[in-house]
Amino acid sequence: MRLLQRDNASNYTVTADLRADGIPPYAILSHTWGTDEVIYNDVKTTPNDWHKKDGYAKIKFCADQAQRHGLQHFWVGSCCIDKSDAIERQTAINSMFKWYRGAQRCYVFLSDVSCLSTSCSATSSQQPGVALWDAAFRGSRWFTRGWTLQELIAPQIIEFYSRKGVFFGDKRSLEAVIRDVTGIPARALRNIPLFHFTTLEREAWCDGPGTNRGFHSIAETGISSKRHDNPRERTTFDQL
């Protein structure tokens, strides 16, 4: 696992591949991919000319949030994995649940939900008590991703932000909305050990409320259907 860090001069560096017993506390980003992402080959360059890419905004956001929470390291999948290396890519896929579970905090960056601090608390005149951002939040492309299932369940703390960095709430405070959108039961969102759920229940989460939610196949959720006799070799589906 590689991690990013930012120094006082706002220079970013990526660590070497860290052993499991040498990974420091870190934050992790959950996001949707855009057309101009910062990738692994970019972050290896000096100076950081990739700051001009559109994808830099979410990296800066993650670095800022991590710093606020006293974390020196953070992980962003688009640039911490060398996707040109097929073996590394597959290893990362198989490790994803573990990496999200091991993070101190997970930040969800909703690039298609715009909310300024002055408008975030405003409510709808048609639906008193319902925030104006509610519909945009529910309709975010983030909820249609195959990776969303495990990125919702794995982290202990997960926080949701607009593309302007405005905080909407965490997994607990937004529990009812998340349950409505995804069909994942509230108990599963509360970090209850997953062995309390049957295999059929866990498979149902992949189906979600409908195939348009992106949970319609094990393959698309990044959950491997392979089984191993050795518990240490369990893949993400087995961990679910």
Biggest sheet, in brief? 5 strands, mixed
Total number of beta strands: 7
The N- to C-terminal Cα distance equals: 21 Å
Q: How much is the average pLDDT?
A: 81
Sheet/helix structural class: alpha/beta
> What topology, given as strand order, has the largest sheet?
4-3-5-6-7
In terms of quaternary structure, the protein is single chain
Q: Can you count the helices? A: 10
- Domain tally: 1
Shape: globular
Q: Can you tell me the residue ranges where pLDDT is under 50 for at least 5 consecutive residues?
A: 122-129, 209-240
Q: What share of the residues lie within helices?
A: 25-40%
SSE order: EEEHHEHHEHHEEHHHH
Region (Disordered): 220-240
InterPro entries: HET (IPR010730)
Protein name: HET domain-containing protein
Biased composition (Basic and acidic residues): 226-240
Descriptive report:
- It comes from Microdochium trichocladiopsis.
- Pfam families: HET (PF06985).
- This protein is an alpha/beta fold and about 240 residues long.
- The protein has one domain (about 5-195).
- About 30% of the residues lie in helices and about 10% in strands.
- It is built from 10 helices and 7 strands.
- It has helices at about 40-45, 55-70, 75-80, 85-100, 135-140, 150-155, 175-180, 185-190, 200-205, 235-240; strands spanning about 5, 10-15, 25-30, 75, 105-110, 160, 165-170.
- The strands form 2 sheets. A 5-stranded mixed beta sheet has the order 4-3-5-6-7, with helices on both faces. Strands 1-2 form a two-stranded antiparallel ribbon.
- Mean pLDDT is about 80; it is low at about 120-130 and about 210-240.
